[in-house]
Amino acid sequence: MSETNESAYHENVFPYILLLPIDSEKRHTILKNVFSSEIGLKIFRKLGTGDILQKNIIETLKGHSNKTIIQKLKLFKELGLLTSSGKKINRRRLLSYSPSEKMGKWIALLLSEVPKDTIENVFEDLFQIYLDHSLNLAVNQGFDLNHFHDIFHKIIAQLSLKLIKTPIVTPEVVVFGSAAMDILIKTEIPDHDEVVLSEETYRTPGGSAANVAVALSKLGIQTSFGGKIGGDFNGLLLVKEFIREGVDISNLKIEPNKKTPEPVVLVDSNGEKRIIVPYGDDIALSIENPDEIDWGLLKSARCLYIGEMFREVSAVVSSYGHNYNKLVVYRPSTAYMKQGVESIEPILKNTDYLLMNSKGWELLQSSSMEKLGTPTDLLAYGCSTIIITQGVHGCNIYQREREFTVPAEKVDAVDTTGAGDAFAAVLIKGLIEDMDLYDSVRLALKYASHSVQYLGARGAFSTFNSLKS
Fold it and tell me: Does the predicted model carry a pTM greater than 0.85?
């Protein structure tokens, strides 16, 4: 390898981390004898990261006296840069040297070429030693280890996110809402002061809107997701999952100094769920400002799905969809339904399909100061169609000209997490492919019934064709 190529190789591979002793006199001696001495440089260049016989080192360094070479080798051993051992060769016991693990090997790395087939092992050793030294320093200085843990994961995540190349699609559907890393616990729900044991615990990609986007992509619909994640390791995992599932994330915003949400999902023996969502200024929830939206991405879309997003931004997105003849599907979050119908009225007036479950309807009705007697009263706020899912009882559909019910298949539920997301995805597919509403809802219920037979929100997301058959 030429000197120029070797220089470029080292520049791309080595971080040039030099581990040296704390004692200043010893450190001075090492630097002087290695880096200010031609013979010192040659010894470590010859050694590399391997084990070399003393006689071979002497033969290589012709032009220097044997005595000088041996003195240097002994000095480097005393300084902890080299280790020595005896080898029996042809009935003779010969002395050999190799760089020490903690300092010598990394000096040798700076001055020699490491074979590419061993570089992963070399870096694994370097990484472990680096972490060991760093953590010891942190403990000795009384630093907060949790803080360094967060920094470590943030650096890895943000660097990886920069390096990931994401495919860009022309979306048929743009989904707005949240992405999260669910902590799913299969357990009996404890009573007050009771302790129960969890049967199963998982960490799995989630977030209601993110689930809808992934399901749509699996159904063969070109889908883009607009939302936010934190600049942490969970965020990195979610990005990789989006890419693996073929979801466009060109409008996914990364908040470097915030955390990705980690909802706790408790699932009982009947498959019923209870979800606890963390909230705070340090959590990356969803798009907060219309300026964060790539409006050019919406031009090609036939449908805009609005999930858990701030209502002010949701109002702007729904208005855009209405003005440009996009199908607008709105599934309000529980937080806004608890605030009454007036809190979401600016979105409802531009909504084609309003989706909610029976619990959501009860919350919205009870918090609306007697403004809502029946679901049909919501039609006065501008919605064209209201769909209320009823779990095992199917769902009820309300329009100005008609009302009807579509029954659901009866199945043994393992986990109802993500059933509403599965329903929404298939419904949207049916609508943009001009299926009859009844048939779209029927197929959406079938998809949702299929999904509750598996643990996790995305456990049963299958292809549309296999489900339809």
Answer: no
Say if residue 329 is in the same domain as residue 432. Answer: yes
Both 200 and 300 in one domain: the answer is yes
Domain that includes residue 79, residue range:
3-143
In whole angstroms, give the CA distance from residue 60 to residue 65. 12
Length of the chain: 469
Tokens (6 digits) for 242: 């989006």
Q: pLDDT tens across 317-371, in order?
A: 999 999 999 999 999 999 999 999 999 999 999 999 999 999 999 999 999 988 9
Residue 338 lies in a domain: yes
12 lies in the same domain as 120: yes
Quote the number of domains for the chain.
2
Q: Which of 78, 98, 107 is nearest to 20 (CA)?
A: 107
Contact present, 175 and 303 (Cβ < 8 Å): no
Cβ atoms of 272 and 186 closer than 8 Å: no
Sign of the alpha-carbon torsion through 286, 288, 293, 295: positive
**Pick the residue with more confidence: 464 or 43?**
43
Amino acid present at 379? L
